[in-house]
Protein: BRO1 domain-containing protein
Organism: Citrus sinensis
Amino acid sequence: MMLHFREPAKLKTKGVIFEDVYAARDSATLENLKELSSKRKVIEDSINQNCYITEAIAREMSGGLTCPFQQDLRKLEQYLPLLENLVYHVDLLGGNHQIAWWTSELKIRALEIVPSDLVQSATLFREAAGVFLYLSQEVFPSLQPTLPAERPPEATSYMSTVMSLICLAEAQAVSIKKAEEKGTTAGLLAKLHYGVAEMLGEAIDVLYSANGQCKDISSCFMEFICSCKALHELSSQKYLAESLKDAGQVGIAIGILHDALINVKKKMPGEESHKSIFRKEVDVAADMLTKCERENEFVWQQKIASGDELPLPQGNKIVNAMPYRPKRWERELAFKI
């Protein structure tokens, strides 16, 4: 999107040693749990930036991949089928209190990965949206009885829904960049930007309707979502004004820009790096307004539209979540219960 949320870069993930949490009944199960821990440890080191291997070794371990983001994805692809197998066998014994206790002791986190290629980025965001949707609809509802009352937001269905919406908004924002490069019409770009704002608005609504759980959400995270929404609304209004001006409706274009600048200035973020981006976008809109007003004064002399005379914004959503289909490496697991 137009802003970058830097807080996740400061997060650290807690180590999980599965064979210390689940008591294996036989040597085969113990080896499978150890392999799962080993695969997770590689991901933990990457997240915590504790990996000190050379680029050549990292490339060899990932099957020749040179991009660090793709190497991280390969690590996840090798870890998730083993984790899915554990989840499958734990679900089979879901009514067992000992299994439920062991599961409640696990604390697992996620990581955001963003490559520079626009097409690949959009695909990855759609895939991520599908994973979060799967967690929200299929995983967390069944885990609620076994999770502790005081749990982090990321272990809730509502937060997974929020993250799915944010990933979709990111995917559409990337698609907009591609559309801008191709010279897509201002009218369509206005609808695409407002589509992003609508997705972020849905995410905000979910957070505030989460039965008071929103108090555990980082204020920086909330500001990030609200600020992104405000910027995409401003971009939508700028493109809409451009489209109307090109159609000779300068008075309406001026009214839209005037309202847009008043609204966005009320939503100035506290984060300094975000403020600079806000000011830049506001300056662009202000310059556009000044030029339109000058042109209208000397050429068009149209009445400046306001209030109900202004068109309502319209959003267009062109991305959807790619369904997540879990892959499981079928291996028998037996526990001492």
